[in-house]
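Sequence in, structure out.
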Amino acid sequence: MDLWVGDGRAASGSDVVQRVPIIVDRIAWAADRVLYGGVAGSRLPILRVSPGQGDPEDVVVEGVAPAATRDGGTIVFVSTSDNTLDLWTADANGRRKTRLAPSVTAEQVAVTPDDRFVLFTSIAGGTLSIWMVSIEGGSPTKLTDGYNVAVSRDGGSIAFTGEVKGVPSLLVCSLPRCSSPKPIGAATFATAVAWPPDGRGVAYANAGNLWVQPLSGGAPRQLTHFTDGRPLRSFAWSRDGQRLAITRSTVTNDIVLFESGK
């Protein structure tokens, strides 16, 4: 994986971290720094980097799917320790950990703009569904069936992927109840989503680039114009909308010959 950071319009940018071995490649902004998952020996740490200002540093020893409050003072992540997937919070240095919810998935985790609630995907109840819990702890509330959730910049809506009559779709609904999800376009199961700075559509990854599906309907517009065909795995705008971080991956396969007696 390479971590690309550019301006909020995706008009220009460059790789700030290159050739990171990854398992689950979700990224998020923590103030002016980017959180991402990597591999270190047998561990899956969450790392943090200030674009153009130094080397990455480990923040969480075992975790994936990071998110953070606006100032980066609280990090939210999915723990991979003890062979379980639980939702936790930690301080900016990865300490003072508190478990928020059990039995979650490694899909996108989102913190509301007011930093009061965390949205995540869980398999509780036997279906992939989106839940919300106070960042201070408490009982989670189920919102709707779906996955890959993102919160709008005004905190009034969420976008997510789900199924409509068996067809994978991109949907939006209003918080806090999400009582009437509205499909606005097509999607795939693994599509990462986010709200662009103008809030007039929902961005998603497809065929190595970012596209924006207008909330009003119609054809999506292409936002990035990478031409090398590399898969675009995850992306996130900074809270002020001025910068965009993108992970792009390269998959290589080797053929190895084993001969008996040698």
